Amino acid sequence: MNATIRRYRDSDRAAVYDVCVRTGNGGQGAVGLYSTDELLPDMFAAPYLLLEPEHAYVVDNGDRVVGYIIGTPDTAAFVAAYRARWIPLLASRYQPPPEPPVTAEDQRLSDMFHPERMIRPELAAYPAHLHINILPGYQGSGHGRALMGAFLASIAAAGARSCHLGVRITNTNARAFYARLGWQPIDVRAPEAWMFLVRATSDP
Ligand SMILES: CC(C)(COP(=O)(O)OP(=O)(O)OC[C@H]1O[C@@H](n2cnc3c(N)ncnc32)[C@H](O)[C@@H]1OP(=O)(O)O)[C@@H](O)C(=O)NCCC(=O)NCCS
Questions:
Q1: Could you give the CA distance from residue 192 to residue 18 in angstroms, rounded to a whole number?
Q2: Which ligand 1 atom sits nearest the alpha carbon of residue 138?
Q3: Which stretches does DSSP call E strand in 91-181?
Q4: How far, in whole angstroms, is CA 167 from its chain's centroid?
Q5: How far is the CA of 181 from the centre of ligand 1 (A)?
Q6: Mutate to test the pocket of ligand 1, among 16, 65, 168, 177 (most ligand atoms within 8 A of CB)
Q7: Are strands 128-134 and 162-168 parallel, antiparallel or unpaired?
Q8: Is 44 in the pocket of ligand 1 (CB under 6 A)?
Q9: How far is CA 133 from CA 30, 70, 111, 198, in A?
Q10: Average pLDDT per block of 10 residues along the chain, 204 residues long
Q11: CA 51 – CA 55 distance, rounded (Å)
């Protein structure tokens, strides 16, 4: 059966977690990297599924979800909702790390407990943001382009005219994909391993 793009359903949650941990860490995968494989999905997938499910789309191969796009039309509102509704749910499973963070996991936890890091003044004119991840066996078949089209149309309908995203500088595959889809670099003060890209939501 050909894979299709459809809206996210609650029953997709475990598969989204699986895709996230297998494709996270700049596309390299993060299985076994931290004390729990749920750490990355708890940061980069779950809050969007909880707070913005209407903007979540998946690739369904007929058996399971093999890719997804998630995000928000309004990063500032998302950050406020994350603090109010997601942080309380994290508290029973994670402890805030020492500050400044010592280990790589501490750094992840610090980011997890500080969603305000997502608000960057240089990106104020690009209020939406997204994350996109597809399992290796399903990459390079047009699903990324289709997911991006669905997401940009969804956030445009919610009033977002422009969007940003962060990508690891070393993730050359994703950078080539974004460039092909019209994303442009923007100068942002950010951790040195990262760069930011922007584009309008029209003409996805
Ligand atoms: C990056 C990713 C989402 C791209 O999705 P995809 O399904 O592989 O991309 P598509 O097949 O839809 O490609 C869309 C276009 O980008 C181009 N493209 C994609 N990857 C490319 C690459 N590595 N080099 C050059 N062009 C590329 C395609 O040729 C295609 O062009 P066309 O539509 O004009 O023919 C996917 O590869 C992925 O999930 N990677 C791992 C996780 C990741 O890195 N996520 C991003 C984190 S910021």
A1: 28
A2: 7
A3: 128-134, 162-168
A4: 10
A5: 9
A6: 177
A7: parallel
A8: no
A9: 13, 9, 20, 18
A10: 93 98 95 97 98 98 98 98 97 94 96 97 98 98 98 98 97 98 96 95 78
A11: 10
Atom 18 in ligand 1: which residue has the minimum CA distance?
A: 177
Q: Element (H or E) spanning 14, and its range?
A: helix 13-23
Q: Which two tokens stand for residue 99?
A: 């500050």
- 3-state secondary structure at position 44: helix
Overall pTM surpassing 0.90 (yes/no): yes
| CA distances for 29 relative to 34, 136, 137, angstroms | 12, 10, 13
144 close to ligand 1 (CB < 6 Angstrom): yes
Kindly state the DSSP code that residue 2 receives in the 8-state scheme: -
Asked if residues 197 and 176 have their Cβ atoms less than 8 Å apart, the reply is no
Domains of the chain: 4-200 (3.40.630.30)
Dist CA 86 CA 10 (whole Å): 16
Q: What is the DSSP letter of 90?
A: H
Vertex 36, ends 31 and 37: CA angle to 5°?
35
